[in-house]
Amino acid sequence: MSAMKMKDRYHVEHFDKDGILKGRYEFPNGIVDEGLNHILDTQFHGTTQVGTWYLGLVNNAGWTAFSNADIMTAHSGWVESTAYTESTRGEWTEGAAATRSITNSVTVDFSINATTVLKGIFVTSDNTKSGTTGVLWSTAAFQSNVSAVNGDTLKITYTVSG
User: Fold this and answer.
1) Cβ-count burial of 70 within 10 angstroms (0-12 exposed, 13-18 middle, 19+ buried)?
2) Per-residue pLDDT tens digits for 61-90
């Protein structure tokens, strides 16, 4: 018997407007209380599961901290960055779980449309840019801030393991 401890990992490739790799970032994230409670309620209490999850970007401006108590309607330590051309947050299209993990085989891409400094990434059940509804699953900070400019693209792979 093994103990299950859920953990997540992001892998981000950052390209400029000419397709030249500017940076590669890999970092873990924290699953917030709301996310863990949702998993427990879904598996053991009959709550309806979330069918689709979405990734969002965290703006460095105004960032002070992530908290385990963060929820989509209240996360006073951070704000979302909407400095990308896509009309909604990026859909995380996961494959089937195998070897105690689940990931996306096609990256979630963000086409940056402004000069911005990014602090991190979050996962939620709502695809609305700047939306404040839905379940917040997790948050994560880049190891150092990521500066992006109009024309850059972030390609994100997200993996959850147990």
Assistant:
1) buried
2) 989 999 999 999 999 999 999 999 999 999
